[in-house]
Specification:
33% of the residues lie in helices and 26% in strands. The chain is an alpha+beta fold. A four-stranded mixed beta sheet has the order 4-9-8-7, with no helix packed on it. It has a three-stranded antiparallel beta sheet with strand order 3-5-6, with no helix packed on it. It has a two-stranded antiparallel ribbon with strand order 1-2. The N and C termini lie far apart (104 Å).
């Protein structure tokens, strides 16, 4: 027995203290609640104001039922080497019919390369090489313009449109 106490004495004492401590914590009684978890739950629920959950459910349903913004594209003839206002070609409205802003996110050439950004790093940092309100197309062809519209409830619509650019 002496050998057992010398080798495992600290562990046995630690286990006995742990069992006693757990017994004290889970055996406490406060306000009719027994145990640490019941006491904490009782305190949390007693200070909570009971709000009408149906109000929140209806509000969440209304936000989720909202339609996404609609983007409209109005084509304007675009000629090579003449400044084009790409921002003016797009308009958007939210579910209530209010006008919201449209952001041109990228302009792609016929090969799928970005004209608006020089590299992927620039695209991540939103560092554009040119202004979309006075954009000069480098060559004639069909370009893909990617746009985004976001309303006040953070509902977002992404779209892309083809824009032909003629040489004359």
């Amino acid at each position: 027995m002496l050998i057992l106490m010398k080798q495992h004495g600290k562990m046995i004492v630690c286990c006995i203290v742990s069992v006693l401590l757990m017994g004290i914590l889970f055996g406490m009684r406060i306000d009719g609640n027994t145990g640490l978890i019941e006491i904490a739950y009782g305190k949390a629920m007693s200070t909570r104001e009971d709000l009408e959950p149906a109000v929140f459910v209806d509000a969440v349903k209304n936000v989720l039922a909202r339609s996404k913004p609609e983007i409209t594209y109005s084509y304007t003839k675009t000629v090579l080497k003449q400044a084009a206002n790409i921002n003016a070609m797009f308009e958007a409205s939210d579910a209530d019919g209010n006008k919201i802003s449209v952001e041109v996110t990228d302009i792609l050439d016929a090969y799928g390369g970005s004209i608006l950004y020089e590299s992927e790093e620039d695209k991540k940092n939103q560092k554009r090489t040119c202004d979309t309100s006075e954009f000069l197309f480098p060559a004639s062809g069909v370009y893909v313009i990617r746009v985004k519209a976001e309303d006040a409830e953070k509902r977002t619509t992404y779209s892309q449109y083809k824009l032909p650019v003629s040489g004359y």
